[in-house]
Amino acid sequence: MIYGIIRGVYLKLGTTYYKYKEGIELINVSNVSLRFGARKLFDDVSLKFTPGNCYGVIGANGAGKSTFLRILSGDLEPNTGEVSIGKDMRLSVLKQDHYEYDDKQVLETVIMGNERLYEIMKEKDEIYSKAEMTDADGMRASELECEFAELDGWEAESEASSLLQGLGITTDLHEKLVADLTGSEKVKVLLAQALFGKPGILILDEPTNHLDIKSINWLEEFLINFEGTVIVVSHDRHFLNKVCTHMCDVDFGKIKLYVGNYDFWYESSQLAMQLMKDQNKKKEEKIKDLQEFVARFSANASKSKQATSRKKLLEKITLDDIQPSTRKYPYVGFKPEREVGNDILIVENLSKTIDGVKVLDNVSFRVSKDDKIVFIGENEIVNTVLFKIIMGEMEPDSGTFKWGITITKAYFPKDNSEFFNDVDLNLVDWLRQFSDEKTESYLRGFLGRMLFSGEEALKEAKVLSGGEKVRCMLSRMMLSSANVLILDHPTNHLDLESITAVNNGLRDYKSNILFTSHDHQFIDTIANRIIEILPTGGIIDKRMSYDEYLESMNLQ
Fold it and tell me: CB–CB of 486/515 below 8 Å?
């Protein structure tokens, strides 16, 4: 049940712009439990969310992150317990139905984010459109005008326009129907709708999906400066690190709240796990490691308001606040069987036209030893085409490519359906196809490290989830012992634990990698060379980190 409470909230009557008193609670979760049949998602969850903070909700796929957001927003009734929000506090939710507003104009759709303001605007229009107004109409119009002004109605269109432009929706699109926009443009309109009107509470489920770098940077700054409460689910670790002051860990039916961003939660939980497991070192030494880690992290220099706030919170942490995560991480490690020679890959004047559009235009580059190259660009299909060409799965219109004689390749395609559809094999037998070692004990051991233990190893390959298929494809690559890895969006469908494991495995790989990804942290921690394929079909080729590249292109 959702009902109102208030503890020291200062607000201008009737408006949605708040001044918050330190320590108040905007959302209070008390003893919330939820079951679906025999399956328990949450049990006796009690949390408090306060203004000026951003809470990242994390957990394995299927743990119930999005379901928890639905409970907070009042969309879903828990079996027990209650969620209360501040009196007169407006809560705004990022909508997931991209077709809901197809019959509305773009600017109008954004303003609909403040439901009461939109109702007033429509009622005013109805009254003023009458041929003759009665005295009652005049009185009602006067009341509406007062409330309209209190809700900053005169600024509504300029605010909506500003939000849209910040997210990359240019003014020439503002009067168009939402139905006329592309899929990514619709996502941006829905995001602008959620941010509109200075809500007290923002609930965002995967807000960076389909956003470009500029839009993500703009959103990060918006949330860092947001005075209310933000609760967000995201698989983008860079985004969580930039905006979050707290992490809500959904794990084994409980939701625990921790101070700090994702990296702090991950690193500190791993150190705490080592403290529990390591019997060879003195406990005092491990405690010292944790203390130094907290001090180092809280002192990390940053100019943002969010980071300053987080620093103050971290300085108050005691060691009792740090707990090991019970979550399991797959093992991802690639070991090349032989070292690459001097000749790895030479691409010369590759051109390719798809559906009448030239996507590659005389593209040339040479891969050198130790190169870990990320391929980026506005049209991600282009990268897939390039990878298919160099893997021999697609013919170029012109140009050549040549792999060195020492090279062995392992390829992770963006679409892996051909490996699983209509395949009547369990996972042990599926993996056996790609392994020189055929014994069941070896294959089961390998699958166990990828979180397919016991009966899980006997699941049918064709019924796997998207994330499970990715883990299987990574297993296939690891078994190949290749000295060049080609990966097309390898983190799609993965949870944060698996993304972190893949990230660490590729970062530690001692040979060449060609890959594509949307994950900022994934790219920045792996790539030492950036190749951007331009809309014209040509390329920009820079040997530098991803952050350095973005800075050089004025994208940060």
Answer: yes
Q: Which two tokens stand for residue 288?
A: 């010292």
Residue 224 neighbours by CB distance under 10 Å: 19
Q: Which carries the bigger pLDDT value, residue 423 or residue 473? A: 473
- φ/ψ of 429, rounded to 5, equals -70, -35
SS3 324: coil
Helix, strand or coil, per DSSP, at residue 398? strand
Q: Which positions ≥6 away from 83 have C-beta within 8 Å? A: 1, 2, 27, 28, 29, 30, 32, 71, 72, 74
Angle at Cα 438 formed by Cα 432 and Cα 444, nearest 5°? 70
DSSP 30: E
Report the topology of domain 2-90+237-321. Answer: Rossmann fold (3.40.50)
Please give the CATH topology (third level) of the domain spanning 345-420+464-552: Rossmann fold (3.40.50)
User: CA-to-CA distance for 153 and 145, rounded, in angstroms?
Assistant: 9
In angstroms, rounded to a whole number, what is the distance separating the alpha carbons of residues 254 and 125? 49
Q: Could you tell me the residue ranges of all domains in the chain?
A: 2-90+237-321, 91-233, 345-420+464-552, 427-461
Q: Write out pLDDT tens, residues 39-74.
A: 888 899 999 999 989 999 998 878 889 999 999 999
The pTM score is 0.84
The residue with tokens 């809700």 is 151
Q: Are 32 and 82 in contact (CB under 8 A)?
A: yes
- Answer whether residue 192 shows pLDDT above 60: yes
Instruction: Report CA torsion sign: 468, 469, 471, 475.
Output: positive
The residues near 195 (Cβ < 8 Å, ≥ 6 apart) are 92, 113, 163, 202, 222
Ranges of beta strands (E only) in 335-414 are 345-354, 357-367, 372-376, 398-403, 409-412
Beta strands 372-376 and 484-488: pairing type? unpaired
In one letter, which amino acid is 113?
G
Per-residue pLDDT band at 314 (split at 50, 70, 90) = low
Closest by alpha carbon to 262, among 50, 500, 467, 451? 500
Q: Do domains 91-233 and 345-420+464-552 have the same CATH topology?
A: yes
Give CA–CA dist 454/459, Å, rounded: 10
- pLDDT for 283 equals 59
Domain 91-233: which CATH class?
alpha beta
Helix (H) or strand (E) holding 494: none
In tens, the pLDDT along 73-94 reads 999 999 999 999 988 789 999 9
- CB of 485 closer than 8 Å to CB of 474: no
